[in-house]
Specification:
The protein is α+β, with helices and mostly antiparallel strands and 134 residues long. It has three helices and seven strands. α2 crosses α3.
Length: 134
């Protein structure tokens, strides 16, 4: 009977805390963070940086999501990558180094007419095939 009561209390606690966590919703902004020079220029710069860093050092296939932290002054830095793969932290460091000029060209998000920090998600589909030539 004690085990049954313990299980019931555990399930109740799990249910209670899982319901409370749903109150934490992502921030909604009046204006999202954006690249000052436009999406096309961002794509061009990002692909240039990826070509420079990925071509010889990493093997990546599939959709990769980069999370860029854009602070309230408009400076961006890549802080996360999903999915994780071997040497992903080295790739982040390399990309942040190559994109150091680009990282200053951001308009921060705004909420209530005040500039705020935010996360900008950027997705790229990779297909870096490696062949063993004879």
């Amino acid at each position: 009977m004690n085990k049954f009561l313990l299980i019931i209390l555990s399930l109740t606690a799990i249910h209670h805390y899982s319901q409370n966590s749903s109150e934490q919703r992502p921030k909604s902004f009046d204006r999202e963070a954006s690249y000052k020079l436009g999406k096309e220029k961002l794509d061009k710069e990002f692909i240039r940086a990826l070509t420079y860093t990925v071509s010889e050092n990493y093997v990546i296939n599939g959709v990769v999501t980069f999370s860029l932290y854009v602070n309230d002054t408009g400076f961006a830095k890549i802080v996360d990558i999903k999915p994780k793969f071997k040497n992903h932290q080295l790739l982040l460091d390399d990309l942040n180094y190559v994109l150091r000029k680009t990282n200053k060209n951001w308009e921060p998000a705004e909420k209530n007419n005040k500039k705020v920090s935010s996360i900008y998600q950027y997705e790229i589909t990779f297909n870096t095939e490696v062949y063993d030539h004879d």
